[in-house]
């Protein structure tokens, strides 16, 4: 697919991750605005709703706030899965950047899914991430739709970080030699047809890495992750 001409006319929707809030992407938003993009963000019920339910709520809010506007997105973690469910005819998506998305589901979620505290705190969306792809169950990652626009995926490779509590235990989840960001494996982030890059960043704060911000801005402007 030929990339559209460079543009900064997009309004970039920022979609946070599981058990996070819109403020977690505030720094990314400031970087995008400094680069000439308008931004829009909202909290969504990541702990209380299924992915499809959260996506329907977010789609309604975007359609009401940004009617007819060309849209881009920068997402973090679960927000990337949410973006895949936003193929709504009311929304004019042009480009999407996913940061550390569990596009193939999550081994970490699967390892913790039987613990009552995990299920209570993280809710139904996390339980969808825990499903084995191809299991044939509702919410199975194999059933998730493709993104509604050309997409770039940026995955992290920093396994240990004090700011990422999951990284303290993920070494017992991932096999030796598996590249991951302390929460999501690099191969779990991959998406067929998407541009792809890795960075030395931890899952929790990947959006604050200067190289990640530069890659995201480049893709939104030019449709490529090339430097």
Radius of gyration using CA atoms only: 16 Å
Q: Provide the CATH architecture.
A: 3-Layer(aba) Sandwich
The residue fraction in helices comes out at 25-40%
CATH-defined fold name: Rossmann fold
Could you state the CATH homologous superfamily? Alpha/Beta hydrolase fold, catalytic domain
Please give the alpha-carbon distance between the first and last residues: 19 Å
Show unreliable segments.
1-6
What profile does the largest beta sheet have? 6 strands, parallel
Structural class designation: alpha/beta
What report would you give on this structure?
There is one protein chain. This protein has helices spanning 26-34, 51-65, 78-84, 107-112, 116-129, 186-189, 210-222, and strands at residues 11-15, 38-41, 70-76, 92-99, 151-156, 195-199. It is of the alpha/beta class. It has one domain: Alpha/Beta hydrolase fold, catalytic domain (Rossmann fold, 3-Layer(aba) Sandwich). Strands 2-1-3-4-5-6 form a 6-stranded parallel β-sheet, sandwiched between helices. Residues 1-6 have low confidence and may be disordered.
Question: Quick gist of this model?
Answer:
The chain is α/β, with parallel strands linked by helices and 227 residues long.
Keywords:
227 residues; alpha/beta; Rossmann fold; 6-stranded parallel beta sheet; 7 helices; 6 strands; disordered N terminus
Q: What secondary-structure arrangement, pairings included, does this model have?
A:
Blueprint: E1 11-15, H1 26-34, E2 38-41, H2 51-65, E3 70-76, H3 78-84, E4 92-99, H4 107-112, H5 116-129, E5 151-156, H6 186-189, E6 195-199, H7 210-222
Parallel strand pairs: 1-2, 1-3, 3-4, 4-5, 5-6
């Amino acid at each position: 697919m030929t990339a559209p001409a460079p543009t900064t006319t997009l309004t970039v929707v920022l979609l946070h991750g599981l058990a996070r809030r819109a403020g977690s992407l505030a720094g990314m938003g400031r970087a995008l605005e400094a680069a000439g993009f308008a931004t829009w963000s909202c909290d969504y019920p990541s702990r209380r709703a299924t992915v499809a339910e959260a996506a329907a709520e977010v789609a309604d809010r975007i359609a009401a706030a940004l009617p007819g506007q060309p849209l881009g997105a920068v997402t973090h973690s679960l927000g990337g899965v949410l973006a895949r469910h936003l193929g709504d005819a009311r929304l004019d998506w042009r480009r999407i950047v996913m940061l550390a998305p569990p596009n193939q589901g999550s081994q970490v979620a699967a390892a913790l899914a039987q613990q009552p505290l995990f299920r209570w705190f993280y809710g139904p969306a996390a339980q969808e991430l825990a499903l084995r792809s191809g299991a044939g169950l509702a919410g199975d990652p194999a059933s998730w739709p493709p993104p509604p626009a050309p997409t770039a995926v940026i995955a992290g490779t920093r396994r240990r970080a004090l700011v990422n509590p999951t990284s303290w235990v993920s070494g017992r989840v991932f096999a030796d030699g598996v590249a991951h960001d302390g929460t999501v494996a690099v191969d779990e982030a991959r998406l067929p047809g998407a541009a792809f890059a890795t960075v030395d960043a931890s899952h929790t704060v990947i959006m604050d890495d200067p190289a990640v911000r530069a890659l995201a801005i480049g893709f939104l402007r030019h449709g490529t992750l090339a430097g």
